[in-house]
């Protein structure tokens, strides 16, 4: 992505489209929430009433705000018991499916094996079964095992049903995590240099006890043991030197490329990148022949927003075509 003004001009349009999409998506949910505060007469009134108030004039969009529905629910012991069962079953089934799905997703992500793709598709295919195809066998099985009308039976059923989704979801998440992080964690060290062994480039990592990591002075006092059994401090073998430089330099199409990485916290990525772009354009003098590109998560997010915008426009167009042919 090149630094120019085209993307800055497109930002308001993108924000407007996303805001419109959010409003269309959240409108049914907001109306459902407002219905909880309506009286029964206002729920089925025409025209629909979605503006809360202390009074509700006839043929208006206002409804009388009331907490009576919640009072009746909280006063009914049976309803509270049903609510507790729903919350308990959903929380337990979600926790179990995420735990088991994480282990399964890690296995599919980190340990490829012959037929792994087929096995992964088989896991997903369990969600393609029509509910009626499994309702009767599960009913007979639960009846024989005494699991009908039990919390454990519902937790087990929901966990098995959601396991395929969590497995695929966790595999996708774990695929995005570089394996080098796990290897570095296993070795508990940093890549210090490289060596060639059997025509392979092998990384050399430095590992030392955690007690010597707080300061350079403690590190220099680290005692090393030679092959003869003699001990000596690290300072007698090496010299300490701290260098500050560019994070990474490599070549791309015979051009030097400097990569600068950062970790962002406390604010959203879009506004931070807009500020970075504005300050670079204002304060940085770019030499001729130099390009600035923004990648990483920002690029992925930008491509996702573009794809979402395209899907939104295509969905609106498809709905319009269907309505035209239907009516």
Instruction: Give the topology string: H per helix, E per strand.
Output: HHEEHHHHHHEEHEEEEHH
What is the molecular shape?
extended
Distance N to C terminus: 45 Å
The Rg value, from CA coordinates, equals 30 Å
Helical coverage, percent range: 55-70%
Low-confidence stretches: none
Tally of helical segments? 11
Number of strand elements: 8
Across the major sheet, the strand order is 1-2
Mean pLDDT: 77
- Tell me the structural class: mainly alpha
- DSSP strand content: 5-15%
Could you give a short account of the major beta sheet?
A: 2 strands, parallel
Indicate the topology.
Layout: H1 6-35, H2 40-43, E1 51-53, E2 62-64, H3 68-75, H4 77-110, H5 116-125, H6 131-145, H7 151-175, H8 179-187, E3 190-197, E4 200-206, H9 216-220, E5 223-225, E6 231-233, E7 248-252, E8 255-259, H10 269-283, H11 296-326
Parallel strand pairs: 1-2
Antiparallel strand pairs: 3-4, 5-6, 7-8
């Amino acid at each position: 992505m090149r630094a120019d003004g085209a993307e800055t001009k497109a930002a308001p349009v993108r924000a407007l489209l996303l805001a419109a999409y959010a409003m269309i998506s959240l409108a049914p949910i907001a109306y459902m929430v407002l219905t909880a505060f309506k009286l029964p007469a206002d729920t089925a009134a025409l025209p629909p009433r979605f503006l809360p108030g202390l009074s509700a004039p006839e043929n208006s969009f206002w409804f009388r705000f009331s907490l009576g529905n919640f009072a009746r629910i909280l006063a009914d012991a049976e309803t509270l018991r049903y609510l507790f069962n729903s919350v308990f079953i959903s929380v337990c089934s979600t926790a179990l499916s995420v735990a088991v799905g994480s282990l399964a997703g890690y296995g599919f992500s980190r340990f490829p094996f012959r037929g792994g793709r087929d096995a992964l598709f088989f896991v997903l295919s369990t969600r393609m079964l029509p509910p009626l195809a499994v309702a009767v066998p599960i009913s007979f099985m639960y009846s024989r095992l005494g699991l009908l009308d039990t919390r454990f039976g519902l937790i087990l059923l929901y966990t098995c049903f959601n396991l395929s989704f969590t497995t695929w979801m966790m595999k996708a998440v774990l695929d995005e995590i570089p394996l080098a992080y796990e290897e570095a964690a296993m070795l508990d060290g940093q890549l210090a240099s490289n060596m060639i062994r059997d025509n392979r480039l092998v990384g050399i990592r430095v590992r030392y006890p955690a007690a010597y990591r707080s300061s350079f002075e403690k590190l220099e006092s680290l005692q090393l043991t030679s092959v003869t059994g003699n001990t000596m401090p690290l300072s007698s073998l090496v010299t300490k030197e701290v260098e500050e430089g560019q994070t990474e330099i490599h070549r791309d199409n015979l051009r030097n490329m400097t990569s600068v990485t950062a970790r962002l916290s406390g604010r959203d990525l879009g506004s931070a990148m807009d500020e970075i772009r504005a300050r670079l354009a204002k304060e940085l003098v770019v030499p001729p022949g130099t390009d600035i590109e923004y990648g990483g998560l920002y690029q992925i997010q930008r491509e996702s927003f573009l794809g979402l915008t395209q899907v939104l426009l295509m969905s609106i167009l498809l709905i319009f075509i269907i309505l035209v042919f239907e009516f």
